[in-house]
Amino acid sequence: xxxxxxxxxxxxxxxxxxxxxxxxxxxxxxxxxxxxxxxxxxxxxxxxxxxxxxxxxxxxxxxxxxxxxxxxxxxxxxxxxxxxxxxxxxxxxxxxxxxxxxxxxxxxxxxxxxxxxxxxxxxxxxxxxxxxxxxxxxxxxxxxxxxxxxxxxxxxxxxxxxxxxxxxxxxxxxxxxxxxxxxxxxxxxxxxxxxxxxxxxxxxxxxxxxxxxxxxxxxxxxxxxxxxxxxxxxxxxxxxxxxxxxxxxxxxxxxxxxxxxxxxxxxxxxxxxxxxxxxxxxxxxxxxxxxxxxxxxxxxxxxxxxxxxxxxxxxxxxxxxxxxxxxxxxxxxxxxxxxxxxxxxxxxxxxxxxxxxxxxxxxxxxxxxxxxxxxxxxxxxxxxxxxxxxxxxxxxxxxxxxxxxxxxxxxxxxxxxxxxxxxxxxxxxxxxxxxxxxxxxxxxxxxxxxxxxxxxxxxxxxxxxxxxxxxxxxxxxxxxxxxxxxxxxxxxxxxxxxxxxxxxxxxxxxxxxxxxxxxxxxxxxxxxxxxxxxxxxxxxxxxxxxxxxxxxxxxxxxxxxxxxxxxxxxxxxxxxxxxxxxxxxxxxxxxxxxxxxxxxxxxxxxxxxxxxxxxxxxxxxxxxxxxxxxxxxxxxxxxxxxxxxxxxxxxxxxxxxxxxxx
Length: 662
Fold this sequence. Notes:
About 35% of the residues lie in helices and about 15% in strands. It is built from 21 helices and 20 strands. Helix 17 packs parallel to helix 18. About 35% of the residues are buried. InterPro entries: LRR_dom_sf, TPR-like_helical_dom_sf.
């Protein structure tokens, strides 16, 4: 039901008792109020169009909504709002607004009758624009279509065999133009070859194949001449020989290959590289070993180094990498920039990296068959030789020699930018000389398992990293008190992620309080395996982070008691005046009410929480967040929220709403 408060305020008021002075005052005041509202409506109309011309769509839309709040029966308001959507290219929304205006328009004076006719015409124009199509693809230069239009429409999506690409059905011109774009197709190995891939075989650049089955599924063809990237899984002992033969038909054009083998498949790196000599990126899961000489088809030319490979990731090897394998990889691929090896149970090669492969910048090794953390390579390019990113995992200190790791870090001290250490040590961990400095080190990640074990290696790193800004600590508080002491004295830390196990809460709070005294921390991520006994100290410590912009509250960080969670939310609102991103990854009671409280933080731009904790009332409260641009709901989509989320999207067109799994 529409709110007619302002409309009723301007209506003539029948007087039960009359007074010779008051009668005229009531009448004249009512007329003046009506004139004021009419004047206000006119000003809002003028400003909304001016704002639109200045590309301030959201603000212009706010002014038209204000007109409709003043008088929901005014055809002018719907006319203005619909035209805004129409000018913005949202014809469907414009038609909906025009229809609403035609239904709600009230009394018909001359002006209203004119606006009513304009509504009818504007609706017809919007319908015509919605139905109008233009084959602009065929009119544009091919390079513009290939480099700009196709990526914009595709948005890096993978076209599935089960859901054909709609753009290919528009016209022959569209099919031809898109065929020359960067087509990526998803194929299910047990299904017959899709006709679209066959007909566009000369244009497909990327293929994703699940459960490879050459007997009934997709067959590689030499016609796939444009294929550059291949992701394939399900290579088994039954089809490994056939796969290698098929791969030889397309291998010379491939630059990027990701392959996953099933148990018992006896392929190694040499078998794959023999068929794809020009690969620049290779990722394998479950290959037999890191041998470079093919077990099935030995090739003499493999005694020569191959310079094309830039990135190599050997994951879940069935035979752990030893010193000889690691050195061979560095020698045969001297242009490697990124190398991931696990399991790898020999650290001796770390001291010889620069000698054999000076171009290597990103290195990940682990003694385990699975990596708990796999950091991404640094994004920006750097032609300087030397390691920039190093990740080492040997939590129990059983395999790696600490001196190998220390010497590797000292050799590359001038180039290291990111270090991830998940290494325990049973020996004395000596501090390197003061002259050893890591001037470019910005990111430090220290992590250990939850079970008892040796202390963390590398407690001394912060003392030698004067520009360290981003720190992640997981289960390291009790097992490395020296590291905690070092970080408490560092005033330049801007981002801090802390995960604590049972009994490690006091050191965690001490570190947060130290960051509050320094006053530079902008991002804080908190989680714990065991809930706090009391949250008061933690809440006060967070409140003292005066420059905090991003806060993530993970598992165990939301009080179960109502009075404590109330205190937490009100404390955040009253103390964290610069907070612009809030991420709640734990269950939270009364979330609807807290969203109303948080709406007073008018600078909040991003918010995330569990979808199961919010109702339609909470979604309505989000409309109060004036600067909100990103809303993330964790978990499965909730159908009962869909309608309210759509309304929120309409009132906040610039808001990005997404569902995500934790």
